């Protein structure tokens, strides 16, 4: 079964005053229909850039994107608009991402107008339906985003994302700004919407517990690269990459369900301007050897259903280590 969404070897380098920022450096992703792929890593790992590249809100420096078999990377004009209707995004800051001058009716209705799905009385009916599905209602139509709590505002953001009846929703730290008690409610809403509509999610977060709760597959990012990929529970219960182990060890209650505090790994993420050569993690890795400074580890299958980008991972390839 072909994936709904695929990204292959995505690269995004930005020019900045201090040099070239290597924000994303060869990321490949595959999201099956009705499934959730989680993307986890510290801030600065390039997760949000991947989110924007996936929807072509940003143009990649290189790499390919496909959606339901169509070449999303090459699409333009009417074809790109048709594809965009089928993929949406929910941002971290629900208040900041909603226009403060728009009523709820305008904010949730906007995609319906832009994509010419509904207008007039039919538009209002459709918006009420969407609001009711996320736990709000007709009484909220003429209110403004700032009149809602963070959790309610994020429900409005989700209603807006659902308006065009998309197949893929990118959630970029969608619950990170919310109180822990509210996070679970919003996560459960996202899960029930997935079950009911067969949605696919690219679910981005720094919180390992949140990502594990939501994801079928987890990809761990470090400095613009995926360093580990596999079944979500398996990756976080038995991490193989030294960076994943560092993240997991910083969350003592990972074994228990529910959202946790932000991870506090050892040392700082180096700058994506002029990143470390060889393995990008070697400046923080407790197992680094001489070869790690020279050789860039490829993401490779090391055990069943697990890809790891570490020279020392899995069945040891001694040539790679000694060269
Ligand atoms: Fe650590 Fe070397 Fe593996 Fe990189 S390649 S994670 S530095 S052991
Ligand atoms: Mg981010």
How would you portray this structure in words?
With 323 residues, this protein is α/β, with parallel strands linked by helices. The protein has a single domain (5-86, 166-322), classed as P-loop containing nucleotide triphosphate hydrolases (Rossmann fold, 3-Layer(aba) Sandwich). It contains 11 helices and 12 strands. The strands form 2 sheets. It has an 8-stranded mixed beta sheet, sandwiched between helices. A 4-stranded antiparallel beta sheet has the order 2-1-4-5, covered by helices on one side. α4 (104-114) packs across α5 and α6 packs parallel to α7 (180-197). The chain is globular and about 70 Å long. The protein starts with a strand and ends with a helix. Mean pLDDT is 92; it is low at 255-264 and 317-323. Bound molecules: iron/sulfur cluster and magnesium ion (MG). This is ABC transporter ATP-binding protein. Belongs to the ABC transporter superfamily.
């Amino acid at each position: 079964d072909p994936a709904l969404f695929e990204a292959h070897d995505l690269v995004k380098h930005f020019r900045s005053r201090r040099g070239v920022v290597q924000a994303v450096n060869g990321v490949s992703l595959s999201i099956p229909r009705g499934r959730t792929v989680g993307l986890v890593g510290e801030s600065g790992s390039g997760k949000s850039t991947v989110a924007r590249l996936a929807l072509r809100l940003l143009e990649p420096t290189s790499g390919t994107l496909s959606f339901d078999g169509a070449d999303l990377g090459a699409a333009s004009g009417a074809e790109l608009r048709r594809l965009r209707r089928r993929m949406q995004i929910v941002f971290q800051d629900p208040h900041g991402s909603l226009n403060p001058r728009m009523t709820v009716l305008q904010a949730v209705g906007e995609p319906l107008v832009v994509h010419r799905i509904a207008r007039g009385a039919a538009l209002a009916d459709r918006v009420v339906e969407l609001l009711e599905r996320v736990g709000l209602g007709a009484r909220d139509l003429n209110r403004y985003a700032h009149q809602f709590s963070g959790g309610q505002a994020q429900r409005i953001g989700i209603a807006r994302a659902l308006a065009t009846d998309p197949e893929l929703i990118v959630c970029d730290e969608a619950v990170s700004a919310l109180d822990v008690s509210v996070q679970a409610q919003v996560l459960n809403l996202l899960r029930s919407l997935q079950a009911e509509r067969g949605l696919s999610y690219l679910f981005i977060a720094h919180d390992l517990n949140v990502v594990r709760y939501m994801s079928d597959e987890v990809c761990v990012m470090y400095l613009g690269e995926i360093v580990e990929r596999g079944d979500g529970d398996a990756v976080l219960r038995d991490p193989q990459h030294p960076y994943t182990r560092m993240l997991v060890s910083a969350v003592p209650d990972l074994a228990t369900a529910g959202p946790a505090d932000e991870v506090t790994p050892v040392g700082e993420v180096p700058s994506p301007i002029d990143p470390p050569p060889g393995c990008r993690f070697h400046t923080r890795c407790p197992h680094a050897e001489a070869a790690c400074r020279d050789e860039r580890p490829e993401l490779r299958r090391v055990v069943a259903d697990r890809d790891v980008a570490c020279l020392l991972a899995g069945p040891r390839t001694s040539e790679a280590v000694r060269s």
